[in-house]
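Aim 2 progress update. The chain analyzed this quarter is reproduced below.
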Amino acid sequence: MSEMLQDLRTVLDIWNGAVSAVQAVILSVMALVALLECFFGFKLIKLAFAVCGFLLGGVVGFAVGALALGAPTSGVVTAAVLIGGIVGAVLLFRIYLLGVFLSNALLTLLLFLLLLGAEPPALLLGAVCGIVVGVLSVKFVRVWMIFSTGIAGGTLAGRSLITLLIGAHPFLSALLGLMLSTLGILFQWKTTASAAQKGPAAPAFVPEPATDLPETDVPRSVCPQPSAKRKYVLSGAGIALTVLAVGTMAGFTGTAEAAPVVADTAEVSDNEDMAEFSLDQVKDYAEGETTALTLVEQGVTRYLFDHDGEIIAQGDGLYFAGEIDGEPCAHDRYTGDVYDAQGRVRFNTKDISYGLNELGGFSEGLCPAYRQAAYQMHNGERGALEPSGWIVLDIEGNVVLTLDTQYDRVDTFLNGHAVVRQAADGFGFRFGLIDRTGNPVVPCQYASLSYAPDQTTLIAQAEDGAYGALDLQGCEVEPFVHDSADEVLQALGMETEKT
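Predicted structure tokens:
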């Protein structure tokens, strides 16, 4: 069985490195949908809004069926969902211009909130720009939808296809996306030309125009154009809904005054760097032996502040990654930089492995990290394939251990040991313990394994459900006769965690 699993893992690793079978299916579906959007986006716009209307109407129907009607049966809820979905689909199909306005206005507003944060000025500016974009998208609906669907579909299709075929490659993805976007826009422009642009077909016989008919009886157009009044009414309805949504969001974000973000308010409240942030933007906080760091998010960017309120690092993918030399450190999963408590870059994980995106956390000078299967990259050129699996780094970024591929999780090191996990033969997982050299101290045979409060004793659960205790050498210090971990702690004379 183990040999079969190893062969399967090897096949999946070889197939384009980082792309698993599930990822390949997802990428294929994404590429197909993106190509349809790129080349047929304008023609499918009503269908797309009908689907969105069905989903939104289904949610409303579920709320009415499950909440407003008390405790209805599953049949009633199902009927409410279907009725709501059908009504929503018909409405958005018939008045799709309202959907065009709302989708473009709200997407513009969301973009402003992501870039500038959910502050009142950003809400106001985003709402104004969203309304303008929504009105323009309705006024020039054909041009707008052809360009927006062509660019969005082409870009996504290019990225999905390149990732599927050769793995992640930003330059080739952008190049293919540009080519597909251009072709998609040209194709849609050519195949969706309106009848007015093409002109009516010349009849074989053109009768003399009647001059004795009343003016109201004279045909005004062979191909009547859509009513401009309808566009203005729908735009007005969209503006009202957008203003209502912005007002609601402002009510949530504007009720509390901005407060300084800190570990110690007395020391940093006057710092200019901190003045523009508020408490609801704090993502995480970490303390070390002599200093503390605060992680703040504004829009899509994260900022790392030291104890004095100074920005020492920034990046979209920052998160805390344990401690280096007793002080907190951070890792940017996108750039690969690892920062110490002074904001210095200790090393870059992309230099170690292109597939190394997440660190388990530094402790005692070691950090377990999972390396996804990926090709090595050297100056933009693809090199050898690196297999997936857990590795252990030191504080300088050197790979000191390459662990057994059977482990699917490795915890941070504590007192020279780390708890590891592997899949069981039948169902679930089994846990064990390794030392700093990667050698197994406790085999992976326990249903659960965790440190006791003294951090030198392990509370373990056997396969039959009984609990006991082990020391860090794997020797039994409390027999497996207990019904819970709390009973083991009481038998060892340790306090249980209070909830």
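The first strand starts at residue 282 and ends at 287. DSSP finds 14 helices and 22 strands in the chain. These observations will guide the mutagenesis experiments scheduled for the next reporting period.
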